[in-house]
Amino acid sequence: MSTSHPLAETHSASGITAASQVFNALKQDLIRGRFTAGEKLAISALKSRYQVGLSPLREALNRLAAYGLLEQLNQRGFRVPTLDASELADIAHLRTQLECMALVQAFQAGDAEWESQLLAAQHRLRRADQTPGEIERWEQAHQHFHRTLLAPSGSPWLLRFIEQLHDQFDRYRRLAPSDPATRELLDQHHAELVTLALARHAGEARELLELHIHLSHQIAKGACPSEA
Fold it and tell me: For the chain, which end, N or C, has fewer CB atoms within 10 Å of the first or last residue's CB respectively?
């Protein structure tokens, strides 16, 4: 854990609290697999890595435990959750249920502005996919696409739950071995979802989204010890 994040330098300029900054930075590092599953986190090392004091660090760690990306040990610190195939299956199932619900609502409420934003998000994702070696750029574009697709659903709570499930799911997916053939098929799904959205073919889009999550789940299972 040698890379440091100079959070204190940006605190005053951004207006974001140090606790929120370390929460966001550590959350991304957990999702990206920068820490080993089951690893107990050393407070002193985290303070050095994120260049933050003990109080905001503990606040961030408690928030991440409540979010599900860390486990709090009884008065003995925090550790990274292990990777479990049954948990991943539960996450994938809930993703399917909630995202398909949000998709139907988005198709009903989406307007011309949403269509323009969705086309722009698809273009951004396609451009990122054509830039080898810039995985973080693709990850950001991919997240933005799925957020945009469901944005008009009209339920902030539903979208909040979906985002939390995405973060949990991506922790597995990003640790799994690559599968270029399935990845290419998943990329095709993004373009097909846009076409169906513009035509408001909700039934076909729901079926495609279910398949999309199912195939993503098959890839993500490769991160689980019993599935590798």
Answer: C
